[in-house]
Amino acid sequence: MAAHRVVVIGSGFGGLFGTQALKRRDDVEVTLIAKTTHHLFQPLLYQVATGILSEGGISPATREILSGQKNARVILGTVTAIDLDAKTVTSDVLGRETVTPFDTLLVAAGAGQSYFGNDHFAEYAPGMKSIDDALELRGRIFGAFEWAELATAPAERDRYLTFVVVGAGPTGVEMAGQIAELAHRTLKRDFRAIDTREARIVLVDAAPQVLPSFGDRLGDAAKNRLTKMGVEVELGTKVVGVDSTGINIEKADGTQSRIEAATKVWAAGVQGSELGAILAEQSDAELDRAGRVKVNPDLTLPGRPDVYVVGDMAALDNLPGVAQVAIQGARYAAKHLKARLDGKPDPEPFSYFDKGSMATISRFSAVASVGKLRVSGFFAWLLWLAIHIVYLIGFKQRITTLLHWMVSFIGRGRSERTVTAQQILARNIIAKMPPEDLPKLPVVDSDHAAADESENEPDVEAEAGRAS
């Protein structure tokens, strides 16, 4: 009997844990398709951007993680098409197209940054959803201090020493806190023409509170800590313009002003993967305002019981876009599929167990919301430290992360301060290239030889049938 073919899209928490949940099934073949070769521990991306961790420390190779899972195969490629009727997924990498058939599809492609209809802001205010984003931001942040050292006019120097972070959720708070620590602690002895402690860090959000999902008490604690660190917190303020030299903001009363800043970080809002629209077009599913797919209580696509959607792509019961939702959803989808393959009744509808939320503000200071527990300060920071070590995948990653944290938190150094012009410029240059100029895998005539030979080989089974 042929194995049941499962195709998983995405190597994030949903895709990886969904694949691993099927590892003991000899009757299942899993093909994981991802546009990167690594699994990304996204909650620590801001530490890559601010020089605490290396990109390898939070992004182990997907193939290495799954090397012991005999029923799993990994394919590199960006998914460009899904045909639910033909049951195929088409992916592309540097012009090479691959079509993969499936019996069951698990879509865990995650979400991208949302600029709320102002996608042109992205050129000057990168988001933080990938290793490329983090490395670009590292180049921009550390580069700003270098350029300030070279500035001859006070206004130019001040512009380079001003950093604006948009979004007061966990990512924005963590990023603002780390830039403040960089300027006030790590770099304070490294320059001669500038005093990095004069850097201005501004945190902007249209919401009336910092960390709104954490509640008033923890939100106020985070705001107070940021303020003590020298971060200016601008709440009830929306961004109405972004360019290369600054950002335009508007208060709730309609008054507008401008902040001159060379470095802008966008940490506000998420947008579901564009694959959501492809799935909705071929099913009874609808999309919410963020482009997420409205799924059934069992995480299947309406009208398509052979398709599961999990993680940041799925819209169900207003669940948050956090790693635990993706992990639990992927494991549930695997459990649901296994019950179906075994001819057993479907399990109860998916129910999310909230294990809590945490955000670090600075070294030795964090906020944590776990059940009815609400704590801030050093104890919350210890909780944050332990939880993130537990969920990092791979022994090497845990050890190297601990060593980097010791350097950064006990000392004042940053182990990963290497930046290049390519990090800063590559994304925008590639985005502006016409499709015909984008790089493609080289092809030579001999590459087609094997395919041509197989096409010319006689059909042995057919010949045997005719002979009989």
Q: What report would you give on this structure?
A:
Belongs to the NADH dehydrogenase family. InterPro entries: FAD/NAD-bd_sf (IPR036188), FAD/NAD-binding_dom (IPR023753), NDH-2 (IPR045024). Its cofactor is FAD. It is found in: Cell inner membrane. The strands form 7 sheets. Strands 3-2-1-7-19-18 form a 6-stranded mixed β-sheet, covered by helices on one side. A 4-stranded parallel β-sheet has the order 11-10-9-15. The protein has a 3-stranded antiparallel β-sheet with strand order 4-5-6. It contains 14 helices and 23 strands. It is of the alpha/beta class. The protein folds into 2 domains: 140 residues, FAD/NAD(P)-binding domain (3-Layer(bba) Sandwich); 210 residues, FAD/NAD(P)-binding domain (3-Layer(bba) Sandwich). The longest helix has 20 residues.
Topology:
Blueprint (H helix, E strand, L loop, with lengths): L3 E6 L3 H8 L7 E7 L10 H5 L12 H4 L6 E5 L1 E6 L4 E6 L2 E6 L2 E4 L3 E3 L17 H20 L3 H7 L1 E5 L3 H17 L13 E6 L10 H13 L2 E5 L1 E7 L2 E6 L4 E5 L2 E4 L3 E3 L2 H7 L11 E2 L5 E2 L2 E6 L4 E2 L7 H19 L15 E6 L2 E6 L2 E5 H14 L3 H16 L10 H12 L16 H8 L3 H8 L1
Parallel strand pairs: 1-2, 1-7, 2-3, 7-19, 9-10, 9-15, 10-11, 17-20
Antiparallel strand pairs: 4-5, 5-6, 8-16, 12-13, 13-14, 18-19, 21-22, 22-23
Helix pairs in contact: 1-9, 4-5, 4-12
